[in-house]
Amino acid sequence: MRKISIDWQKAEEHPDKGQKVEGRFLLDLRAKVNDLEKQLTDTKNELNRTQSNLRSTSESLESTTNDLESTKSSLDSTKAELGDTTSKLEQRLTELEEKTKSNANLNSEIEGLNANLESASSKVSELESKIEELGTTISDLSSELEDSKTQIKGFENTTSESKEQTDKLTAEIQELNNKLTVTQDENTSLNSQLMELNNILLQKDTKIQELTDSMDDKEKLISAQTAHLEEVESELGELKPPELGTGGFASEERTTCPMCGSTGGSIKQIEDKTKVLSYVGHIPMYAKKHVCKKCGYEF
């Protein structure tokens, strides 16, 4: 087959004059351009599908982050309630020391779960960072594809590009396709990691619910025993002899705060843990002291 060449120098000097070129050369050139356009269209469609998958992954990540925040808030509330219950038990009950230790063990387990949740949150953040990098990569690939498309349009308008440039564009498109394949594989891996994290979070939520149920049962038992102790203290208070004033009779004077002078309902009576009057079995009976609700002075 005789090779047909175009006198490019002549075309530049006299662009309005025609040259003899075989139609087969032009047909081959048009077929190659059409093939490149078809490959570019397929690549762009694949890019659109990848971007759609990335948006779906981002929405799933946002939902997972919200679930993590809700779980952390629930854990903080549970820890606060457990700390308040433990404080009350330490003040009122020495007999329930073993149960308090058990609650402390539950606290340790919850803290371990918190640590696991924080680790899961860190992994989710890493995945979000990777997805952002993939988004940047796709944006760069889209820009490169647009540049390639522009070059092909220029080739179609002028029909002055050589076969070497066409082969170069084809190689660039192949490279872009390879990059897209790698990006899709990374996206699939990220989706798998997200599914594993969701399964871990579901297991942690189940464990937390079990611990919460156990704590509720123990709190009910503690409340029942506390109520019983209060009944015993009330009975002991009724059996306690009345306090006498300086004249040998019961004092009917209203208690007054020596600091601010408040009286009546502003003064409350509490147990003085530093003064043990007696023991009922293993339960200590404490002396009483007054506390001013306005200024907080104890006397």
Topology readout:
Layout: H1 8-13, H2 23-92, H3 97-158, H4 163-239, E1 267-280, E2 283-292
Antiparallel strand pairs: 1-2
Helix pairs in contact: 2-3, 2-4, 3-4
Model description:
It is built from four helices and two strands, in the order H-H-H-H-E-E. The protein has 299 residues and is mainly alpha-helical. It has two domains: 21-239, Substrate Binding Domain Of Dnak, Chain:A, Domain 2; 243-299, no CATH class. The chain has a two-stranded antiparallel ribbon with strand order 1-2. Strand 1 (267-280) and strand 2 (283-292) form a beta hairpin. It is rod-shaped and about 125 Å long.
Question: What is this structure, in a nutshell?
Answer:
Strands 1-2 form a two-stranded antiparallel ribbon. It is mostly helical and 299 residues long. It has helices at 8-13, 23-92, 97-158, 163-239; strands at 267-280, 283-292.
Helix count from the secondary structure assignment: 4
Low-confidence stretches: 241-252
Query: Which range best describes the helical content: under 10%, 10-25%, 25-40%, 40-55%, 55-70% or over 70%?
Result: over 70%
Question: How large, in whole angstroms, is the Cα Rg?
Answer: 41 Å
In terms of DSSP E residues, the strand content is 5-15%
Strand order of the largest sheet: 1-2
Report the principal-axis shape.
Answer: rod-shaped
CATH structural architecture of the largest domain? Up-down Bundle
Number of domains: 2
Total number of strands = 2
Which key phrases capture this entry?
299 residues; mainly alpha; Substrate Binding Domain Of Dnak, Chain:A, Domain 2; 2 domains; 72% helix
